[in-house]
Design goal:
Length: 184
């Protein structure tokens, strides 16, 4: 049987190691910072030069007015990020990745995208979103930020989304993003 002093010694050793790991992270990466970002994502499925393209869809599933990306659709995207909602607004980055239409009853996407900024103090830095997007809700959508690179190394946080524009016939959308990041 172990003695209480042995338990205490093991507990103190674990606490010491945890504190050392945290101190080492701060020494290597610097202090943790809080950053707020605001931009508009332009997802265009229509026209001669779409930014999002269907790459797969399940059997017996077809697009229809009101359901341009039916359940099981897989879309590859390279969407522009702009300062304002207008397509001519200043470009501040791009979002590249995939989304899958995952909702059978409710319109929802599972989104895996890299958001790279190409202007301003975070030029060349990116954060990654991997989350479910309930697109039928015009406001109140929240996506998880799961990582980053450059200035956003080891990022975590969330993105609050609001639909600025949605064409339910062809799927074109302009989405407002308010992003909160914790990063080193």
């Amino acid at each position: 049987m172990r003695t209480p002093s042995l338990h205490l010694a093991v507990l103190l050793a674990v606490v010491f190691l945890v504190l050392q790991c945290d101190a080492t992270t701060t020494e290597l990466l610097g202090p943790e910072k809080l950053t707020h970002l605001h931009f508009f994502l332009h997802d265009t499925l229509s026209g001669k030069d779409p930014s999002a393209v269907l790459v797969a869809r399940g059997a017996n599933r077809t697009a229809a007015p009101g359901d341009p990306v039916p359940f099981s659709s897989v879309v590859a995207a390279d969407d522009l990020l702009t300062e304002g909602p207008e397509p001519q607004s200043k470009v501040v980055g791009n979002a590249q990745g995939l989304y899958v239409s995952s909702g059978r009853g409710e319109a929802a996407l599972v989104l895996g995208m890299d958001f790279e900024l190409t202007d301003g103090p975070f030029n060349g830095s990116a954060f990654v979103v991997l989350s479910r997007n309930t697109i039928a809700r015009p406001v109140g959508r929240e996506l998880a930020v799961v990582g980053g690179r450059g200035a956003f190394r080891m990022a975590r946080g969330f993105a609050l989304l609001r639909t600025h524009y949605l064409d339910t016939n062809n799927g074109d959308a302009i989405i407002e993003y308010n992003v909160t990041l914790l990063h080193h």
